[in-house]
């Protein structure tokens, strides 16, 4: 495994970080009061079932962020190997295997145990990308798939800079700063190094990079970050800041800044 399995406690619930493939993350969300579990992007079903059995919880729900095989490719095997009741498979794209609940409207809420989960449509990386915002009272987390990474964002495979601006600035940036961010890949070091390329004097990026490098030497995952931290360290969350706009020579046009930043990152 590229990282150790860790568990983060959040009062009413906990999140177990499950590494998969060369740099993917899956997440087991456990409601402490009902012992129900949901799995985010279960590309490695054997790892998922092992965690479910060790935690002694009932897996009821699959939260799929998008259709790419390294996120949704384990859905069919997970469903076929399930011996309990049918799994509820939630997503925003009919290309997702086993889909039972299609989310085609932004902001749809559903109850998972004692928790509320809001589905945030963030098309760009794929047209059907969904981020899942979990409100557990005093603690909030968001599973961002390949829309928002620690220090970065996903490629615009099926969308535009305008859509990514909407996703990062108008939707995700509006969540509480304390919201824990669990992203789809372990890309933190390369993303933070790009951030320093854009803003060499940003000490928040430098401090975060040092912290992440220490974690990675110990095989600890870099996740989670927070929405508040991303606003300080992530150039794609900072496209409205003149210091970032100057680098791309797009002062006054944050959407063009988003486009130019992504082009710059793609070509490094």
Structural class: alpha/beta
Report how far apart the termini are. 27 Å
* H/E topology pattern: EEEEHEHHEEEEEEEEHEHHEHHH
The strand count comes to 15
Shape: globular
- Residue windows where pLDDT falls under 50 for at least 5 positions: none
Tell me the fraction of residues in β-strands, as a range.
25-35%
User: What is the helical fraction, as a range of percent?
Assistant: 25-40%
What summary fits the major beta sheet? 7 strands, mixed
Give the oligomeric state of the chains in this entry, treating copies of one chain as homo and distinct chains as hetero: single chain
What is the number of helical segments per DSSP (H or I, 4+ residues)? 9
Rg over CA atoms, rounded to whole Å, is: 18 Å
Mean pLDDT across all amino acids: 97
Q: Tell me the strand order in the biggest sheet.
A: 1-2-3-4-5-6-7
Outline the structure in words.
Strand 10 and strand 11 form a beta hairpin. The longest helix has 15 residues. The protein has a seven-stranded mixed sheet, with helices on one face. A six-stranded mixed sheet has the order 8-9-10-11-14-15. 50% of the residues are buried. The model has no long low-confidence stretch (mean pLDDT 97). It is globular. It is an alpha/beta fold and 268 residues long. Helix 4 packs across helix 9. It holds the Pfam family HAGH_C. Belongs to the metallo-beta-lactamase superfamily. Glyoxalase II family. Pathway: Secondary metabolite metabolism; methylglyoxal degradation; (R)-lactate from methylglyoxal: step 2/2. It catalyses: an S-(2-hydroxyacyl)glutathione + H2O = a 2-hydroxy carboxylate + glutathione + H(+).
């Amino acid at each position: 495994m590229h990282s150790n399995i860790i568990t983060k406690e959040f009062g009413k619930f906990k999140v177990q970080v499950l590494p998969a493939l060369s740099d993917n993350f899956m997440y087991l969300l456990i409601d402490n009061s009902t012992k129900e579990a949901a799995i985010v992007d279960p590309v490695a079903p054997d790892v998922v079932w092992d965690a479910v059995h060790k935690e002694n919880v009932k897996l009821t729900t699959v939260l799929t962020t998008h259709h790419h095989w390294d996120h949704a490719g384990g859905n069919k095997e997970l469903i076929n190997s399930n011996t309990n009741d049918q799994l509820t498979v939630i997503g925003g794209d009919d290309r997702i295997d086993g889909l039972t609940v299609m989310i085609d409207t932004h902001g749809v809420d559903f109850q998972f145990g004692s928790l509320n989960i809001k589905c945030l449509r963030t098309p760009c990386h794929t047209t059907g990308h969904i981020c899942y915002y979990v409100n557990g009272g005093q603690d909030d987390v968001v599973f961002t798939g390949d829309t928002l990474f620690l220090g970065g964002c996903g490629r615009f495979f099926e969308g535009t800079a305008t859509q990514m601006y909407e996703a990062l600035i108008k939707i995700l940036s509006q969540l509480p700063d304390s919201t824990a961010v669990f992203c789809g890949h372990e890309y933190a070091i390369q993303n933070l190094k790009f951030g320093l390329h854009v803003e060499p004097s940003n000490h928040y990026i430098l401090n975060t990079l040092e912290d992440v490098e220490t974690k990675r030497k110990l095989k600890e995952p870099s996740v989670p970050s927070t929405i508040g931290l991303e606003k300080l360290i992530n150039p794609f969350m900072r496209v409205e800041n003149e210091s970032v706009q100057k680098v791309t020579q797009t002062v006054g046009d944050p959407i063009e800044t988003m486009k130019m930043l992504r082009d710059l990152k793609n070509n490094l």
